[in-house]
Write a structure and sequence with these properties.
CATH architecture: Sandwich
Number of strands: 14
CATH class: Mainly Beta
Structural class: mainly beta
Oligomer: single chain
Strand content: 35-45%
Number of domains: 1
Number of helices: 2
Order of helices and strands: EHEEEEEEEEHEEEEE
Distance between the termini: 17 Å
């Protein structure tokens, strides 16, 4: 089982998301999304993420370099997994319900509280507004571009939206981090923690790793 420790960086809350990248690159925990779980989807972009926290928020900074780039969806609660997408799924250690946070490369978010892939409750517009994002590509949607591209996405997720009490954080949560792009020239399904299923399926909390807060 994969494990990581989330560093505490109090000053992150004092900075604009557009400038937290340097601090996170130097002081956050760096991990790689590089597990190819399904041989029929062998394409593997370069994907790393830096993770850190403050008292109130979890910060994740993704860096991606790979073939093709797509961002058709510009409205939250839309199927961003069909675009160039990075994802974070988590659950409380003692529970089976989980939450998915999915972001395309311009920061559009699809998130929900879930009992399963089919049984879900999407975030409210007010909750979506609490999830701050910064993309090096800006916010405007675009059709698929061919070629090699690099991009960065920083997200700030309140612990309250994750279903956690920021004043009494647990020692650990369970989670996984993903990179996908379903409807592109190079579809792929890459994870941080391995997934042992026959076909691509990110909605498998039994394969989450340990994330120590």
């Amino acid at each position: 089982m994969k494990k990581l420790k989330v560093p505490y960086l109090k000053t992150l809350d004092e900075l604009d998301l557009s400038v937290v990248g340097d601090l996170m690159e130097n002081k956050a925990q760096r991990e790689y999304i590089q597990v190819i779980n399904w041989k029929e989807y062998p394409y593997q972009p370069i994907v790393v993420f830096d993770i850190a926290r403050t008292d109130q928020h979890l910060y994740i900074r993704y860096f991606v370099r790979g073939n093709s780039l797509k961002a058709l969806h510009a409205t939250d609660d839309s199927p961003v997994y069909t675009d160039s997408c990075v994802e974070f799924f988590m659950r409380k250690a003692e529970e089976t319900d989980y939450i998915n946070f999915e972001f395309n490369c311009i920061g559009t978010c699809d998130a929900a509280y879930r009992q399963s892939r089919e049984n879900k409750q999407s975030l409210s517009p007010e909750q979506y507004a609490l999830i701050h994002r910064y993309s090096s590509l800006g916010k405007n949607p675009f059709a698929e571009k061919k070629g090699i591209y690099s991009w960065e996405l920083v997200v700030r997720i309140p612990f309250s939206v994750m279903g956690l009490d920021p004043h009494h954080l647990p020692e650990k949560i369970m989670g996984n981090f993903y990179k996908c792009a379903d409807d592109t020239e190079y579809p792929h399904y890459v994870s941080w923690s391995p997934i042992d299923t026959e076909t691509p399926d990110f909605h498998r909390p039994e394969f989450f790793g340990e994330i120590y807060l």
